[in-house]
Amino acid sequence: MMTRLTDDMVKDIICSLDSTDDTLVSLTGMNTLELACDAIGISPDTINTHDIRVGVVPVTSGLGIITRFSDSVAEIIKKLGMEAFVTESPDVAGLAEALSAKCDIIFMADDVQFIAINAGNGRYSNNSFSTAAGYVSALKGAAKGLAGKAVLVLGAGRVGSIAAELIVSMGAEVTIYDIDGKKANDLSRRVKIKVADDVGAALSSHDLIFNASPAPIEADHIREGSIFSSPGIPFPFDDAGLKKVKAVIHDPLNIGVAVMAVQSASFSGPMELNR
Ligand code: 2YH
Hints:
single chain, alpha/beta, Rossmann fold, 2 domains, six-stranded parallel beta sheet, five-stranded mixed beta sheet
C-alpha cells in the first residue's frame, strides 16, 4: 500500500524544524545532517552544503498538490545549509525553471515516486531508500549500535524491506511481521530474517523496533522501555503506548528528505556540482 501524506501531516513541519532537530540529537546523538551523512556512509565534512542549490518542483498529477509539501521540503533542505527554493510553476515548466536556475539537485514527487535528481549526472535518490536508511541510522544511534541485537521490523513494504536488509547487514538478528504473511515470507527467501505471525507476541519479545507499517500499535503489546524508529504514517501510538516506550523517532518528512538531499549531492564530488 502506498501511503500519501495529508495536508494536516505536513502543516507543522516548518515551524518545528528546530525542535525536530533537537529531539533527534537527544534521541540518537546526531542532528539531521549528521544522521543523513551516517545513513549513506559519508562524513559531514566531505560535503559543503552551502555550495549546493536545490529546486523543489510541485507536481499536480494524480491526487495533486499537498498544501505546504514543497515548502516543507525546501525548508528542511535549507536547514541542512543548502540553498533551496520552490519553483513558481509546477510540473514540466517548474522542471525547466529549476534547470534554468542551474540547480544541482531537483526534488519532485507524485503519488508513487518521490525523487531527488542530481542535475549534473542524472542520478537520483528516492524517498523509500532514503527513509529506510535514515531511520535505520536513527535506530542504530538510539540503541548505541545494532550488531548482535534482536530487531523487529513491522511492515514488509518498500521501506520495511530495505530497512530489514540494511539492519541484517549491520549484524542484527531481524524478525519481520507483515499483516500480509506472503510479503514477509517472500522477503525471508531473499534476506536472512525470521518471520513472525503474531504481532502482539513479536512486540512483547522485542525492545528495538523499526516500524514501517501504517497500522496503529496497541499499548498492551508494547514492551516497557522499547525504542521505536517509526517512519510509518500516521503516527501509530496512543497516550498509553507513549507512556511505555523509551524513545520514538518519527517525523512526517524530515529524515527522508535530508537523506535524499545528501545522497543526491554525494553522487557528484563536492567540487563537481552543476555550475
Ligand atoms: O506522498 C507522496 C507519495 N506517497 C510518495 C511516495 C514515496 N515513498 N507524494 C507526495 C506528493 C506531492 C504532491 N505531488 C506535491 O505537492 O507536489
